[in-house]
Amino acid sequence: MQKRPIVHVTRRLPDTIEARMRDLFEARLRKDDTPMTEAELKSAISNCDVFVPTVTDNITKEVIEAASSKLRLIANFGAGTNHIDVAAAYEKGITVTNTPGVLTEDTADLTMALILAVPRRLVEGDRRMRAGEFKGWTPTHMLGHRVRGKALGIIGMGRIGQAVARRAHAFGLSVHYHNRHRVPKGIEDSLCAKYWEDLDSMLTAVDIVSVNCPSTPATHHLINASRLDLMRPDSYIVNTSRGEIIDEAALANALAKGKIAGAGLDVYENEPQPDPSLMDLPNAILAPHIGSATFESRQEMGEKVLINIRAMMDHHACPDRVLPPGTRLSLAS
């Protein structure tokens, strides 16, 4: 009988996924649901066949160098892999996989929720209500902006960006987008989306900006002070992608000075702590990284992890393999 692989998981996963792991593998599960230190990551990765990290784990080259020679797979529980040195893993012959697709709709739902909630000052109103500040309806109380008829600029027209565009169109927003490459005309036409090759030009033309691009060296602080200055005083920005894409200190300054009207954030540059200047701003909604936080999404993410591990065990190609940029995988691989 084939020996069951040792699978080390860095965080608590849904109960059903952990139960399946115990049935299928020699699973080493984490009872304490807190991020591991670098020393703990090195210790865990040094004695397993499969390593299952999450977006909270910084899997650096140094951590990967601590892996035992039997480590064959890093099966990430999450779609993004910018926290993993994929190139270092590739050099050591370690496969890296992720869980794409399953969190698209949930993240797009949250993005749309923020697009609706920020201009209507929904969370600010909730705070005022709980503080006893509501003294009755008046014609000028808590005025915000309608979204119907406004222009939405999407930065990053991948799976999630396209899902946001579909929702936005249903709410009467016109859709504009900036992407590294223009999407095929059929997709563009189906979304009634206008392509902007120049991001700066798009920022001056839209009312709401949604950040949906991946985190790469090229997108670090893509939205900085100068680009925030291009936006109109009555415009809004929403980020459900990666925190480091926005210069958070510059955003806080723009919000405080009224350079833009509001922001909705689900991710942060130095997560889990937002920039302190954001904390007391009434025109900022701060969500605790819940883009994929549905029972359905987390279950499906876990199932993708299991599928990738089983593929590795059966000597098949892992369906969700992630390669370093520019790498071409031969058919023999």
Written account of the structure:
By secondary structure, the chain is α/β, with parallel strands linked by helices. It contains 12 helices and 13 strands. The protein has helices spanning 15-24, 38-45, 61-65, 86-91, 104-117, 122-130, 159-170, 185-190, 199-205, 225-230, 248-256, 295-313, and strands at residues 6-9, 26-28, 50-52, 73-75, 95-97, 151-155, 174-178, 193-195, 208-211, 236-239, 262-265, 284-286, 321-322. The strands form 2 sheets. A 7-stranded parallel beta sheet has the order 8-7-6-9-10-11-12, with helices on both faces. The chain has a 6-stranded mixed beta sheet with strand order 2-1-3-4-5-13. Helix 1 (15-24) packs parallel to helix 12 (295-313) and helix 5 (104-117) crosses helix 7. The two termini are 26 Å apart. The model has no long low-confidence stretch (mean pLDDT 95).
